[in-house]
Amino acid sequence: MSIAENVLSIKNNLPEQVTLVAVSKTKPVADLMEAYNAGQRIFGENKIQEMTEKWAQMPKDIQWHMIGHVQTNKVKFMAEYVSLIHGVDSLKLLQEINKQAQKHRRVIYCLLQIHIAEEETKFGLDEKELNEIFDFVENEKEGMKNIRIVGLMGMATFTDNQDQIKKEFTHLKSIFDSKQNLKSEICNLKSLSMGMSGDYKLAIESGSTMIRVGSSIFGGRN
Ligand SMILES: *Cc1c(COP(=O)(O)O)cnc(C)c1O
């Protein structure tokens, strides 16, 4: 199937509350334009430089999501235009995003990344660190006016074991649910970003509201 057909067939089968992020990392602008012409407006990238080059070349009604690990010193390169940063995993990074957003007189939307996988290698916060960030932000409201924490993100273990993946997604959903009482101007968790090409159906069953799908749309990567 073509990229356009892939986008449409995935979209047409999604529940209403689920948003599709088309993960276009490593793919050329021509491929992204095929998805764009099929109606896709949200693209996810994992490298700031690559995302910025694509942003410069592509239509301006696209929402760019940073889904990869973000180095603090690179936030400035996307602060002008990024619409959602999925992988926020430290207070230091959140403060830098706030500072750069302020420079551009805008608000940047963020998801906090939670560590749910068994592997040591995946980034993310544990629950204690998550609570520390919420406490800090609630106490420093005035100083954090240029960010909004609008949800959580997680990546399951890379495994074929469906029960394991399901257990990790369910765990993330339970953390997400337990924070629904935190409704302030700055923190209001509405989005749960979980699920990729291999596991997005399981993620949706587990309560995902945002899936990040790359290879099922654009084909495999090198
Ligand atoms: C690459 C990537 C995806 C998409 O992976 P596919 O398996 O190609 O769908 C999703 N989320 C993150 C964080 C990624 O880096």
From TrEMBL:
Domain Alanine racemase N-terminal: 3-221
Highest taxon, organism lineage: Bacteria
Coiled coil: none
Modified residues annotated as N6-(pyridoxal phosphate)lysine in this record: 25
InterPro entries: Ala_racemase_N, PLP-binding_barrel, PyrdxlP_homeostasis
Pfam family, one: Ala_racemase_N
Keywords, comma-separated and alphabetical: Pyridoxal phosphate
Family assignment from sequence similarity: Belongs to the pyridoxal phosphate-binding protein YggS/PROSC family.
Stated role: Pyridoxal 5'-phosphate (PLP)-binding protein, which is involved in PLP homeostasis.
NCBIfam families: YggS family pyridoxal phosphate-dependent enzyme
Protein name, as recorded: Pyridoxal phosphate homeostasis protein
Origin species: Flavobacterium zubiriense
